Amino acid sequence: MRKHICIIAVTLLTLGCQGFLDEKPQKSLVVPSTLSDLQALMDNELLLMNLSPGIPTILSDEYLLKEDILQSIAEPSERNGYVWADDLYESGTNVDWIGMYEQIFYANVVLETLETIERTQSNSVQYDQIKGSAVFYRAHAYFNLLTLFAAMPQDGVELEKYGLIFKESAAIENPPFRLSVSESYAFVEAQLQLAEGLLQEVNSFKTRPSKLAAKSILARFYLFQGEFSKAEDAAEYVLDRYNVLIDYHQIDPSAASTFIRFNNEVIYHSNTIDYLSSFIGEISPRLYDKYEHEDLRKSRFFNVDQSTGRVTFKGSYTGLFTLFSGMTTAELYLILSECKIRNGSIQEGLELLNALRKNRYEASTFTEVSFTDPTESLREVFEERTRELVLRSLSWYDLRRLNHEPDFQRILTKEVGSKTYTLMPNDLYYILPLIDVEIQTYGLEQNP
Q: Per its UniProt record, what Pfam families does this chain match (predicted)?
């Protein structure tokens, strides 16, 4: 099966560069033409379809790079992104941009091929699942791009024109086009809702989309843009049906890689695109010091070199050293907790927070958090998000959305050698520039 997937993937990448709809003498032999072919194409999870951008972790401040290590990094967007340099790409490209648009290309191939296959009573379940999966992958890719390369609705009308670049067809002769910010968010929402309606409730393969996965991504999507009632509804829908949390007392802290792949908290599995610095960076003391001694995550997420004091991360839910970026029940507990508090149900929100914390702290010393003030309650939720969702590309996501709230915004600083770099809340650097080749090829306007 793996060989079959790779053959299709390489073939389609070649066709994509030349135009998918170009006539080929043996086109019928290399282009997927059955439902099984299309499912195999989307099952290329390790190399393509289940990847999320890795640069948010570089842009954030969860780990540190020493000056000599930073200068040894060859990838411009990695080296420059770490210190928020103006010339991010040095006229080059960016693997996150390319990776997301490859996912969109493949999803478009699947959707366009489906139009040539008759949906029948006997194949309807498989047909709808494949269509829903393609719509899901495309919408998820666009959402990931939104968090990096587009303005947010909260940014104001002056940035409304800086929405996403869309490619609605796999055909090379159909050029991409740009939507406004509001149009971009409306499109992604509609596509996730469409996927939700087509997909099966659950899927035995956690790399494949399901209705619960789509609802989970919708909860993350609504939270990002401040639609707290919608985020609450989406998160509650999932947790009403699946709410398993791992008891960290049962996790061996001495294991080299602490968590197994596809563990019971995972609703949808994906991992970030690998950057070198995620393997060679050391955890920031600011982050590590947030874990109390009684916090079981401290020993299960991190290794400490006793001779140097260097702290490294080992707690990825990929079961490997690659970084997890999928959806978990724990994240949904945090989303629902935040939304309950914001929507006026403080005690319900804190009950959800304490239900998660009970599985993360030593039982003998565990005490529930209790607040009556919504601001203090939210602050505790955000602290818990920082501790729970470490190195999942969500720190930058939280920075962007909370920058618009003075009570919760943060100034980022990094020291490299003798230099100190600073990124202020709502700096325009939070909207990453488009890569030069897209601007030159399609005449697009650069981000501010």
A: SusD-like_3, SusD_RagB
